[in-house]
Amino acid sequence: MEVVLRKYGNSTVAVMPPAVLRDLGLKSGQTMSLETTSEGNIVLSPKRRFTLAELVSQCDTKAAPPADMALWEASKPVGNEVW
């Protein structure tokens, strides 16, 4: 299929026919990730949304806390903070 690139404001857009969008399960306004391969191919995929559990599972629970956290924990109240 041939796709024509068009100028749209300061951007260039590729117009996809409704049948292609339907086949790919895409819709107007959907956020996508676009990457290019070393061969010059374009890879378009839905933007990945992570759950909190997925993000927490990537954390190293044995890692030492950042140095600035020790300073935060040792600091004294300077205003009307409730401790």
Short structural description:
This protein is of the alpha+beta class and 83 residues long.
Number of strands: 4
User: What percent of residues adopt helix (DSSP H or I)?
Assistant: 25-40%
Order of helices and strands: EEHEEHH
- Estimated radius of gyration: 24 Å
Beta-sheet strand percentage? 15-25%
Poorly predicted regions = none
Q: What is the overall silhouette?
A: elongated
Mean pLDDT: 87
Organism: Variovorax rhizosphaerae
Pfam family, one: MazE_antitoxin
InterPro entries: SpoVT-AbrB_dom, SpoVT-AbrB_sf
Protein name: ChpB-ChpS toxin-antitoxin system antitoxin
Could you characterize the architecture of this molecule?
It holds the Pfam family MazE_antitoxin. It comes from Variovorax rhizosphaerae. This is ChpB-ChpS toxin-antitoxin system antitoxin. Residues 6-49 form the SpoVT-AbrB domain. This protein is α+β, with helices and mostly antiparallel strands and 83 residues long. The protein has three helices and four strands. The protein has helices at 18-24, 52-57, 67-74; strands at 5-8, 11-14, 32-36, 42-46. Strands 1-2 form a two-stranded antiparallel sheet. A hairpin with a 2-residue loop joins strand 1 and strand 2. The chain is elongated. The protein starts with a strand and ends in a 9-residue tail after the last helix. The mean pLDDT is 87.
List the helices and strands and how they pair.
Elements lengths: L4 E4 L2 E4 L3 H7 L7 E5 L5 E5 L5 H6 L9 H8 L9
Antiparallel strand pairs: 1-2, 3-4
